[in-house]
């Protein structure tokens, strides 16, 4: 996960019928910004299935360094 992705944890994803993993369309710093953008997306694209998710992935490299130091 890049530094920019960690600063913008709220994501709007699109669910597709054939794909198991949703596609991340946009990333936001605040949940409120994601909600407003989601409302606009739903008005413009009625056929898509969108959702807001919180991307809570941690940087595994930093965790492994911290645990190896113990």
| Main beta sheet strand tally, sense and closure | 3 strands, antiparallel
Helices and strands: which structural class? alpha+beta
Q: Strand order across the biggest sheet?
A: 2-1-3
Strand content: 25-35%
Mean pLDDT: 82
Oligomer status: single chain
Overall number of domains? 1
- The radius of gyration computed from the alpha-carbon positions, rounded to a whole number of angstroms, is 15 Å
The helix fraction, in percent, is 40-55%
Description:
The protein has 70 residues and is of the alpha+beta class. The protein has one domain (3-69). The chain is 41% helix and 26% strand. It contains three helices and three strands. The chain has a three-stranded antiparallel sheet with strand order 2-1-3, with helices on one face. A hairpin with a 7-residue loop joins strand 1 (10-15) and strand 2 (23-28). The protein is flat, with a radius of gyration of 15 Å. 4% of the residues are buried. Mean pLDDT is 82; it is low at 59-70.
Secondary-structure topology with pairs:
Layout lengths: L2 H5 L2 E6 L7 E6 L2 H14 L4 E6 L5 H10 L1
Antiparallel strand pairs: 1-2, 1-3
Short characterization:
The chain has 70 residues and is α+β, with helices and mostly antiparallel strands. Helices cover 41% and strands 26% of the residues.
What structural keywords apply?
70 residues; disordered C terminus; flat
């Amino acid at each position: 996960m890049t530094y920019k992705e960690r600063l913008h944890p709220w994501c709007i994803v699109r669910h597709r019928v054939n794909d198991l993993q949703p596609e991340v369309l946009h990333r936001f710093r605040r949940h409120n910004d994601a909600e407003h953008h989601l409302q606009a997306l739903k008005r413009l694209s009625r056929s898509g299935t969108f959702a807001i998710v919180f991307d809570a992935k941690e940087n595994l490299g930093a965790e492994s360094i911290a645990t190896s130091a113990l």
